[in-house]
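Title: Comparing notes on inverse folding

I've been comparing how different people in this forum approach sequence design from structure. To keep things fair, I'm posting one structure and asking everyone to reply with a full sequence. Here's the target:
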């Protein structure tokens, strides 16, 4: 990797991992325990960028109260130059802002068959993880994953953990969009958003974007913590026997209908509307059906610039008066299509009424 001259960091002598001194910045866990704030219904998520008040919150073991003056981030493991950095030093580094959808996978203890639409679209600002790794000089022959530790600890679903720990493959860690972030929508990260610093992995489920970040470590294997082994693994839909599991990492194509609103009365023979589609890869097609999937009409999709959710709009002919179920089906650039039923990202259904459709 490229050398970085005179970076504002404190290099650590020796090649071993560093004791947990970065955890000294933790003041308290308050409130303790699991917390979720559900988002509003899809038809209320009508801003291009989701404001804080409308963005869901998921906290597994409690919210970490962090002293920003004592906060530090350690980067170690299979690297030649382990180092630590404080908040002021982090802010002196090259920054990047990325607009990205932010989606919660849903419950990791229940089957992934329900589309919960815990989704928003925000602007993150921070330092690319790629840049931090370039300072540390990781061993790319041995280092296959980057582990990330949060300052939170406690119990979730009956299992205790001394830290929230996740991992990501080194190739994703080196992608330029992955950030060690300290701002959301132009404001410093609050405690509830994982401040003062969190990891942000655009295109992946929010569970991977470790909040209250304090430690990154390049390792040869996956993390053995409960949030990678017990929780957040799902049956691989490509396994015909329904046995093999895969990590909850990349977001598959998903969509939601914002307009018309549920139970809205449309006084026209053409149903017009719009919605959002998103996924780890760019969505290249959205189709709309009014007849339970028998026929589909292609919508207009706005191309993606970064990792933001994509606007789609449609106009579909309604052949009669009565009740209709609008469905939207997204397809990404690799050809992966949103399923009709049985998966957490199945197509949305919005019930509306159509009147006065005669020619």
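Reply #1:
Here's my take.
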């Amino acid at each position: 990797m490229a050398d970085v001259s005179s970076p504002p960091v404190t290099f650590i002598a020796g090649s071993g991992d560093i004791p947990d001194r970065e955890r000294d910045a933790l003041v308290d866990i308050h409130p303790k325990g699991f917390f979720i704030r559900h988002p509003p219904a899809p038809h209320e998520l009508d801003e291009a960028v989701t404001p804080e008040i409308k963005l869901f919150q998921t906290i597994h073991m409690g919210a970490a109260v962090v002293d920003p003056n004592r906060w530090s981030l350690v980067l170690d493991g299979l690297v030649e130059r382990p180092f630590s950095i404080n908040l002021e030093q982090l802010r002196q580094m090259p920054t990047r802002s990325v607009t990205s959808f932010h989606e919660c996978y849903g419950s990791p203890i229940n089957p992934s068959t329900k589309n919960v639409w815990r989704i928003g679209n925000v602007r993150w600002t921070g330092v690319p993880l790629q840049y931090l790794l370039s300072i540390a000089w990781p061993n790319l022959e041995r280092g296959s994953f980057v582990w990330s530790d949060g300052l939170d600890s406690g119990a979730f679903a009956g299992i205790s953990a001394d830290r929230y720990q996740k991992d990501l493959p080194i190739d994703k860690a080196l992608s330029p969009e992955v950030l060690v972030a300290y701002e959301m929508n132009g404001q410093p990260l609050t405690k509830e958003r994982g401040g003062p610093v969190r990891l942000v992995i655009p295109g992946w489920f929010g569970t991977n974007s470790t909040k209250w970040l304090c430690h990154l470590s390049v390792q040869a294997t996956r993390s053995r913590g409960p949030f990678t082994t017990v929780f957040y693994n799902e049956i691989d839909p490509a396994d015909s026997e329904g046995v093999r599991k895969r990590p909850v990492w990349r977001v598959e194509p998903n969509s939601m209908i914002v307009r018309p609103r549920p139970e809205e009365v449309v006084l026209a023979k053409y149903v017009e509307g719009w919605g959002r589609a998103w996924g780890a890869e760019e969505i290249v097609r959205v189709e709309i059906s009014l007849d339970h999937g028998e026929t589909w009409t292609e919508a207009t999709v706005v191309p993606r610039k970064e990792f933001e959710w994509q606007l789609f709009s449609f106009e579909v002919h309604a052949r009669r008066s009565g009740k209709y179920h609008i469905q939207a089906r997204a397809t990404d650039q690799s050809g992966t299509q949103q399923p009709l039923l049985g998966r957490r990202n199945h197509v949305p259904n919005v019930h509306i009424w159509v009147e006065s459709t005669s020619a």
